[in-house]
Write a structure and sequence with these properties.
mainly alpha, disordered N terminus
Length: 181
């Protein structure tokens, strides 16, 4: 078994390996409005944690390769860019999201930090991570049904990223109309 934290090992199944991941990161970073190095750091820092997450029912890994981990981080970064969350607020929310993923279940204390972090990060996590509203997310946590595996699968899905990308484009056009961008 190899160390999943090593970029070249974890990216070996990434359509062309680490070099292709490195090249594609420039395009993705510009779409996310961040530096390529910052984008790669965000992905590679979360990969080991997401890769270690296991489904509580089956015991299987939820995230099997870097493409899924990248999809999760892309969704989270899109949420950050749309929600108006600052970098510090995003980092605090990300810590809680990683705790939910690593514990397998989310509790109210995890959600409280995300909801208090500012912006609409909590709302987006409820909608795109758990497929419910904020009230539904809180209800699921009190029933012990707020599963980290469900969150990771939903965030890794292409449909979530496509919807978030469309929302990002709509918000960008709105800011351009106002003359801020």
């Amino acid at each position: 078994m190899w160390n999943i934290a090593t970029p070249s090992r974890f990216t070996q199944n990434y359509r062309g390996g680490y070099d292709r991941f490195y090249d594609e990161s420039f395009d993705e970073a510009s779409r996310m409005r961040m530096s390529a190095a910052g984008y790669r750091d965000a992905i590679m820092s979360a990969v080991p944690i997401f890769a270690a997450a296991r489904d509580l029912d089956t015991g299987e890994r939820v995230v099997k390769d870097i493409q899924q981990a990248k999809g999760i981080m892309d969704s989270l970064l899109l949420m950050k860019s749309i929600s108006g969350t600052t970098e510090d607020q995003f980092q605090h929310a990300l810590i809680q999201i990683i705790q939910i993923a690593s514990k397998g279940k989310g509790q109210m204390q995890d959600l409280r930090s995300i909801l208090e972090s500012g912006g609409h990060m909590g709302e987006f996590l409820a909608r795109y991570g758990f497929g419910t509203s904020i009230g539904g997310m809180i209800s699921k946590s009190s029933q012990g049904k707020l599963l980290g595996s469900e969150m990771l699968r939903n965030l890794a899905s292409a449909s979530s990223r496509e919807t978030l990308a469309k929302r990002q484009e709509m918000s960008r056009r709105t800011w351009e109309d106002v003359g801020i961008i």
